[in-house]
Amino acid sequence: MSQTIDNAPYTAFHRRLALACSGGPLLDGYILSIVGVALIGMRPDLGLSTAEVSLIGAAALVGMFVGGALFGVLTDKIGREVMYTADLLVMVACSVLSFWVDAVWAITLLRFVLGMAVAADYPIATSLLAEWLPAKKRGRLLGQQIVAWYAGSVLAYVVGYLFLELAGPGSWRWMLASSTVLCVVFLVIRRGSPESPRWLAANGRVGDAVRVVEKHLGVRVDGRELMPDPAERGRPAGLRLLLTQPYRRRTLFCGLFFMCQVGPLFAMLTFGPQILSSFGMPGGTVMETLGTGLISLVFLLGCYPALRLIDTRGRRPVIIWSFALMTVPLALLGVWPTAPAAIALLALCAYAFLCGGPNVLDWTYPNELFPTEIRATAVGVATSVSRIGAAVGTYLLPLSLTGLGTGPTMLIAAGVTALGLLVCVAWAEETRGTALGASPAAPAASAGASAGARTARGAVPAQRVAQTAR
């Protein structure tokens, strides 16, 4: 694959494309967080049981599990551009319908379909963005997509708070329907976004790839340079390729670290008011909502130093140290379940800030570790696996708080985070500065003495990086 795209200057075209691609993560953060506020009014209005509250909270995450795997494969087969608008139209329809339904099964179904549409956007948008970005900007711009997620989450709590203050808990229908506005905004922003030249070339449309590069990057490129590496031809496609070496281990790594990260995280954001209430946060509605909104804001702020560190220190050391430190505040709350509300809020904010490392690598890693023909599939599978943990955590958290208590619930969250640490120590690779079309090779060793040395140095030499990821 030509180095034209990897070495291209960063332009207004890249900035607009990054903004357009941020729509999916922003809507995900908004849609998953607004339901936590809406449930404050929905529960008494509809007479929901704890199990029904859990079901509604987890429905979108189950939908993301299905949608990530399904639409990642489709995106690699039919292209990024084709799917780019359809998923937003589905989100619009589900958001509007959410205003009119009042049966638990209907709300659950709409949340499930919304989850499928949001999950579809991840492999579509992040693969498209990764395949257009120059190498020196790729880690930062892919990492900034998760910043959009937390911006959406913070916005959801601000909007939810305003609805609670101005219209009361009975405004939950308006809260669920409010995502329609964001969907329409990003439908407008995405107009005219081009197909990925890497996908076009990999699927035999070299002429189209040449034309789209010349149009949007302003450079002429030899069509022969855009052709995939001959070594890539004749390989099994789709999910089958993910199950071959070296991709099998990379698939497990991306899915498992993502799952161990978002399991506690999504449960916390969806039921943040209930968690803070268990530590004695006063107010019943507004105070817990503001507290959870603050935690969401800290999640967002923690991404900014992590964006710098993944480019200066490397991907591997950042993700390992982040998981190690994230375990501490959760374990503290586990062994001190009677902590004052202020201490609990500070500990959860510390956890949120330290999540920045894994957050900015959620989509950076799968896009850098896999080749063009399975990149969207890999992102979709990683998203699906992660949502298993998120859905289970979101469904079980209110039941655990009620049945086991706050301390054991926090210790379980700490254990899941510690498992993520072990996965990263064993399998995390260094992909900083890698050309997206670099030749494949066996992943660099990531355990034992060599792993320790690499972690201590913060990065591997550039010539070895080029051999470890695409």
TrEMBL record:
Pfam families assigned to the protein according to its UniProt record, in alphabetical order: Sugar_tr
Subcellular location field: Cell membrane
GO molecular function: transmembrane transporter activity
Transmembrane region(s): 17-41, 53-74, 86-107, 113-134, 146-164, 170-189, 250-269, 289-307, 319-336, 342-365, 377-397, 409-428
One Gene Ontology cellular component annotation held by this UniProt entry: plasma membrane
Coarse class of the protein's main subcellular location: membrane
Domain Major facilitator superfamily (MFS) profile intervals: 17-432
Region (Disordered): 438-470
Alphabetical list of InterPro entries matching this protein: MFS_dom, MFS_sugar_transport-like, MFS_trans_sf
Protein's membrane topology: Multi-pass membrane protein
Keywords: Membrane, Transmembrane, Transmembrane helix, Transport
Biased composition, class Low complexity, residue ranges: 438-459
Stated name of the protein: MFS transporter
Organism: Kitasatospora xanthocidica
